[in-house]
């Protein structure tokens, strides 16, 4: 992968919303869900027909990340008030700042909307794999990656921005860092 990306970053191609029932199962997705998934190279199990009816937790890696998302969903259901969370959703070559708004619906359902805030080309590409994902492993053991801010932590070293990592491929385990837990 080149050290510098000369091509401009195109407009974000994101699935704008999906809905969950009171038990956390996906009940509806935005009309362009399959097109966005296909253009993004998502596996067949990510298409609408495979997603609807499944628990959201099935698509979230890491226990801490599952608990973080469950807490946000429960807060919206209990208070009846929308909640907006900022997060990063990078591609290997684009840094993307996003916003996720959880909106309560009748009967404990929740609509989750995603909005692009900012994006910029990465100076250096980065691809992360989880323990169960195929791909080469360039480090001896998994590195912790925050599911919210995408910062990385090697062993007991301080958290660092993904742009500071020299390796183009990393085996990661997802968690939520302390900074993001208190937001």
Supply database-style keywords.
183 residues, alpha+beta, Beta-Lactamase, 5-stranded antiparallel β-sheet, 4-stranded mixed β-sheet, 4 helices, 17% helix, globular
Describe the structure.
The protein is α+β, with helices and mostly antiparallel strands. The chain has four helices and nine strands; from the N terminus they run E-E-H-H-H-E-E-E-E-E-E-E-H. Strands 2-1-5-4-3 form a five-stranded antiparallel sheet. The protein has a four-stranded mixed sheet with strand order 6-9-7-8. 17% of the residues are buried. The model is unreliable at 1-11 and 133-140 (pLDDT under 50).
SSE ordering: EEHHHEEEEEEEH
Per CATH, which architecture?
2-Layer Sandwich
Mean pLDDT across all amino acids: 85
Structural class: alpha+beta
CATH fold assignment = Beta-Lactamase
What is the CA–CA distance across the termini? 35 Å
- The order of strands across the largest sheet is 2-1-5-4-3
Low-confidence stretches: 1-11, 133-140
Query: Can you identify the CATH superfamily?
Result: PAS domain
Total strands? 9
What Rg, in angstroms, do the CA atoms define? Answer: 17 Å
Count of individual helical segments: 4
Look at the structure and give the CATH class: Alpha Beta
The outline comes out as: globular
Largest sheet: 5 strands, antiparallel
Helical residue percent?
A: 10-25%
Q: How much of the polypeptide forms β-strand, as a percent range? A: 25-35%
Q: How many domain modules?
A: 1
């Amino acid at each position: 992968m080149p050290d510098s990306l000369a091509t401009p970053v195109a407009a974000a191609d994101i699935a704008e919303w999906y809905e969950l029932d009171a038990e956390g199962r996906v009940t509806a997705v935005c009309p362009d869900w399959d097109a966005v998934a296909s253009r993004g190279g998502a596996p067949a199990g990510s298409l609408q027909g495979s997603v609807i009816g499944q628990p959201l937790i099935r698509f979230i890696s890491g226990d801490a990340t599952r608990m973080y998302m469950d807490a946000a969903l429960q807060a919206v259901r209990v208070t009846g008030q929308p909640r907006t969370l900022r997060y990063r959703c990078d591609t290997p070559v684009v840094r993307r700042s996003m916003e996720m708004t959880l909106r309560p619906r009748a009967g404990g359902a929740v609509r989750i909307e995603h909005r692009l805030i900012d994006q910029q080309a990465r100076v250096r590409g980065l691809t992360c794999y989880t323990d169960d994902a195929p791909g080469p492993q360039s480090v001896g053991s998994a590195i912790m990656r925050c599911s919210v801010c995408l910062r990385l932590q090697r062993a007991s070293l301080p958290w660092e921005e993904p742009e500071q990592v020299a390796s183009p491929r990393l085996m990661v385990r997802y968690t939520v860092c302390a900074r993001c837990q208190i937001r």
